[in-house]
Design a protein that fits this description.
Blueprint lengths: L19 E4 L2 H10 L10 H6 L9 H16 L4 E9 L8 E12 L2 E10 L2 E11 L3
Antiparallel strand pairs: 1-3, 2-5, 3-4, 4-5
Length: about 140
Amino acid sequence: MNTNDVKIGDVSVGDTLPELPIPLTVSLIVSGALASRDYTPVHHDKAKAQQAGLGDVFMNILTTNGLVGRFITDWAGPNAMLRNVNIKLGTPNLPGDTMTLTGIIVSKQSDEVTVDITGKNAWGNHVTGTVRVALAS
């Protein structure tokens, strides 16, 4: 985790963020769903997830969104401010896998950058999107 702020003058378009591998556990998936008050059974009940065609419980979008935010703020530092998060889900995140988040700076204006993010697991892209974040000056 970064305890220093990334400064706007220290980054350039094309810079990549350090990868963040996130081990996917039943505890992470279920606790994320419960913390975000998503009581949809497929996120905490293995039998219901299997009835829906998957082998186990799977991560909800709110947990994914939080992990994307963590990825950016871990890199940018404690004084960064997320201004916009725009994500799309792809393959499900299932227990026993790892989602690896990656990012590349695609634009830089004034005090903010836009980062293209991807979160991949063994099946492919779980999440793709962009995050606009204000950095320290």
